[in-house]
Write a structure and sequence with these properties.
The protein is an alpha+beta fold and 811 residues long. Helix content is 54%, strand content 18%. The chain contains 27 helices and 26 strands. An 8-stranded mixed barrel has the order 18-19-21-22-23-24-25-26, surrounded by 4 helices. A 6-stranded antiparallel β-sheet has the order 2-1-4-9-6-7. Strands 13-14-12-15-17-16 form a 6-stranded mixed β-sheet, with helices on both faces. Strand 6 and strand 7 form a beta hairpin. The two termini are 95 Å apart. The chain binds ligand C2E and magnesium ion (2 copies). The site of ligand C2E has 25 residues, from strand 19, helix 19, helix 20 and strand 23.
Length: 811
């Protein structure tokens, strides 16, 4: 757009000249040809008059008769000091109005001097003084005519310059836009190098423009043109230097050497000019000198680099400099030999080619990375956009919150309860729609520097800023209301309940870590020490939970060592047969004998290891010990009781879970009929198919299996009928709260007992502490009892004594 604007602007300015469309330069031929060389005393013909170094020549001509007010004399001046006078009266001295020395040294392109009509027929004298900078003065390029017509003619003569200007400016602008695009994609390395390359191109465009007669059309003041021309020319190596500094890869070595030499040379030239040792125009020669120097550098670097690598970029960079060098050499040749023409032309063209080559090689390289980046971004976008809600994914959220502080922030986990059921009833599409609507409503309620994402499984994560817990409590209430509004809007007929779990982000060490935040928040739900806000159904993780966590972590860290040090031991709690009071079996229960703290009860460590999945280590350790105990009893000639071991819910999902038991049984050679496994009812119902398979495997090796804690959570009698358990252990909760005195309790126990019996299941009553409970259970037909009434869990030796006393019921 900017490029198009520039073209319209520049070409529009040219069209302006065509207002006076007819060229009316008065008597150009006769005026151009009527010049007399004063010293030679004869008329000068041809194109150029030779003015050798440090000499002056004077030319005269007669101002034509039809000179009117609007007529100007226009002289092409290539670095001469020219004074124009009419009948001895100076009417113009080149460069007046600017520093004399500067003006004299630089000359002008076209010098346009107004001619008063009073000068008609009078003698016009031009004094041309050479300060040893050029060769010849061209009298063919002295025009006479109306101002606009002269200007227009000059512009026409500058078409090539103009095209060069437009072209290089366009390249520069397009490159600038491309560089900015790279910055948007964070390709900063390429951005900087291409940014300075674009500035280099734009600056070159300005230089061409200021050097052309096009600018003269607008600004006749030579001082402004000089300034613009020299400033832009000297800025070229500066941008080149920046480009080199920012250039990625080993090309910088090549560019660096060349540009540094260029800079150094120009600096020396400027200093020499400042101390009056060198005319300024010689600085143009310094460019050529630099270029000659660069030829050597190029050859040396070429040899060095191509010897080691076949880097195409180095090759094209060197080729670009070689072109510049060639152009500069031609210009240098022109400087000394040509007559009055613009001697920097070849340098300018080669500069364009040089720039183009640098641009093409750099753009090509950056494009490769740019495309890679775009592909990465595309995939990243896919990874960042959640398809269900159209919002942020967990990954995006994680990256975003990592940049936010922890102080004053809370992580909030919101999930829709029973979402699976809602999903089944309403259909997946409707549910996704609801979740999307909730997401949007939540998102709208966010403030600056707050984030949200879909965590999956009908849960959203929010990172919210709040000064204290009361504020976050208020936000929860609002979010809960928003959910209900969405439910109404989406015309959902079911009740949709939400649960919030919160943790202050401050609990995190440095930057927020989503996994940890989520763990903490969700742990609040299970942690008895967490705060609970009923109105929002929200659990809040706090420092007390944190202390608990540390304790848990401590246990986790110590487990392996404890197993190795035999701190985890097996205690046995007998199960007493109600028929004859003998010991019919026993349950193996883990105890952690800590050398410092003493006995740690399973209630303290089992849940910790169930949460982190390490429980199977304990289970297997206990199982192996049980196998060894049974073998020991057999080897001592004793009949062992059936020993049951607990299997944790967390362990059964592991792939070859039961194989580990089979391997231990095989390794120890224990007879499987003395083994029983206890699986809790929640384990059984939640993993129905898996449990069926495990039960089959247990029966296959010849061991038994009982359902533990029956009645503790929700019981499913029909599932119990299909699952192959041998026994059911009625949970202690059946017998607490008034059994057998309370008739309703009694009815419940009796009914359950009958039901279980009808399914041919052996019934064990757990947690029996009182005699009346034992008596009632005996009447109700319960098979055995495990409870403190008879015995608490005890170490092996004590258990052996207990069995001796009570007698063992043979299987
Ligand atoms: P559980 O498998 O239901 O074991 C029975 C629990 O009830 C044992 O608690 C036992 O001491 C307790 N108990 C038995 N009779 C009475 C009674 O009359 N009154 C009271 N108040 N309690 C009674 P313990 O040993 O503290 O174990 C608690 C739970 O820890 C076990 O419940 C079991 O789920 C788990 N556990 C224990 N050892 C292991 C193990 O090696 N592996 C696994 N996975 N879990 C284990
Ligand atoms: Mg048990
Ligand atoms: Mg139990």
């Amino acid at each position: 757009m900017a490029a198009v604007m520039a073209v319209i602007l520049i070409s529009g300015s040219c069209v302006k000249g065509k207002d006076n469309i007819k060229l009316k330069i008065h008597e150009p031929k006769s005026f151009t040809s009527g010049w007399k060389d004063v010293s030679a005393g004869r008329e000068v013909g041809g194109t150029a008059v030779n003015i050798p170094g440090f000499s002056t020549k004077t030319f005269t001509n007669i101002v034509p008769q039809d000179v009117s007010d609007n007529v100007y004399i226009c002289i092409w001046n290539s670095n001469f000091h020219i004074t124009a006078s009419v009948n001895g009266k100076v009417i113009s001295e080149m460069g007046s109005g600017i520093s004399r020395r500067f003006a004299e040294e630089n000359g002008a392109l076209w010098q346009i001097i107004p001619l008063d009509y009073a000068y008609r027929g009078q003698v016009l004298t031009l004094t041309v003084e050479n300060r040893n900078r050029t060769r010849s003065f061209n009298l063919d390029k002295v025009y006479l005519g109306p101002y606009n017509d002269i200007q227009f003619e000059l512009v026409k003569g500058s078409v090539f310059y103009f095209l060069e200007t437009v072209f290089i400016l366009l390249v520069g602008i397009v490159l600038l836009v491309y560089a900015l695009l790279l910055r948007r994609y964070h390709l900063m390395e390429h951005f900087y190098s291409l940014f300075f390359l674009s500035l280099l191109a734009i600056d070159a465009g300005i230089w061409f423009f200021s050097n052309s007669a096009v600018l003269q059309y607008f600004i006749s003041s030579p001082s402004i043109r000089y300034l613009l021309s020299y400033l832009s020319f000297y800025l070229l190596p500066v941008f080149l230097q920046f480009f080199y500094i920012e250039t990625p890869g080993n090309r910088s070595l090549v560019l660096g050497s060349l540009v540094t030499a260029y800079m150094a040379w120009i600096t020396v030239a400027l200093i020499l000019y400042r101390v009056n040792l060198l005319p300024l125009s010689i600085s143009i020669i310094t460019v050529h000198a630099f270029v000659m120097f660069s030829i050597f550098v190029i050859i040396i670097l070429c040899l060095m680099h191509f010897h080691r690598t076949h880097d195409r970029y180095i090759f094209w960079t060197l080729a670009a400099f070689l072109i510049l060098t060639t152009g500069a050499l031609i210009s240098l040749y022109g400087f000394y030999t040509r007559t009055g023409a613009d001697n920097a032309h070849a340098f300018r063209i080669s500069f364009v080619l040089f720039l183009l080559l640098l641009i093409v090689t750099n753009v090509k390289e950056s494009m490769k990375e740019f495309n890679d980046m775009r592909t990465v971004l595309h995939y990243k976008q896919l990874a960042y956009m959640d398809p269900v809600t159209g919002g942020n994914t967990r990954l995006y959220f994680e990256e975003k919150i990592r940049k936010l502080p922890t102080t004053g922030y809370y992580f909030l986990h919101m999930n829709i309860l029973q979402f699976k059921i809602i999903n089944q009833v309403l259909g997946r599409e409707k549910c996704d729609e609801l979740l999307g609507a909730i997401y949007k409503a939540f998102e709208k309620s966010l403030r600056e520097n707050e984030e949200i994402c879909n965590l999956g499984n009908a849960a959203l994560g929010l990172y919210l800023a709040a000064e204290n817990e009361e504020h976050i409590h208020e936000r929860c209430r609002i979010l809960k209301t928003l959910v209900q509004q969405c439910v109404l809007e989406k015309k959902i007929s079911m009740i949709v309940n939400t649960q919030f779990c919160i943790t202050p982000a401050l609990e995190q060490a440095d930057a927020p870590n989503l996994n940890e935040l989520q763990d903490h928040a969700l742990m609040a739900r299970l942690n008895p020490l967490a705060i609970y806000w009923q109105d929002a159904n929200c659990y809040v993780y706090n420092r007390a939970c944190g202390a608990q966590l540390i304790k848990d972590k401590n246990l986790e860290d110590r487990l392996d060592l404890a197993i190795r040090n035999h701190e985890i031991v097996t205690w046995l709690q007998p199960k007493i047969a109600l028929a004859d009071g003998s010991v019919c079996s026993a349950e193996a229960l883990a105890r952690w004998i800590d050398p410092e703290k003493g006995i740690i009860s399973p209630g303290e460590f089992i849940p910790v290891f169930e949460r982190n999945g390490m429980i199977s280590k304990i289970d297997l350790c206990i199982f192996e010990e049980v196998c060894n105990m049974i073998n020991q009893w057999i080897s001592e000639g004793k009949t062992p009781p059936v020993i049951s071991v607990n299997i944790s819910k967390a362990a059964i999902r592991q792939d070859d879970f039961f194989n580990k038991y089979v391997r231990i049984a095989e390794k120890t050679g224990v007879p499987a009929e003395y083994l029983e496994f206890e699986l809790t009812e929640s384990t059984a119902y939640e993993n129905y198919d898996l449990i069926r398979k495990i039960l089959e495997e247990i029966h296959q090796i010849g061991a038994g299996c009982s359902m533990d804690d029956f009645g503790k959570s929700y019981s499913n009698i029909s599932a119990l009928a299909t699952l192959q358990f041998n026994a059911v252990k009625m949970d202690k909760s059946f017998f607490d709260d008034g059994f057998p005195m309370d008739s309703r309790r009694y009815q419940l126990v009796s009914g359950t007992m009958q039901l279980l019996k009808s399914l041919n299941l052996e019934v064990v009553a757990e947690g029996i502490e009182k005699k009346e409970q034992v008596d009632s259970l005996k009447t109700l037909g319960c098979d055995s009892i495990q409870g403190f009434y008879f015995a608490k869990p005890m170490p092996q030796k004590q258990f052996e004594l207990f069995v001796e006393k009570k007698k063992l019921r043979k299987i």
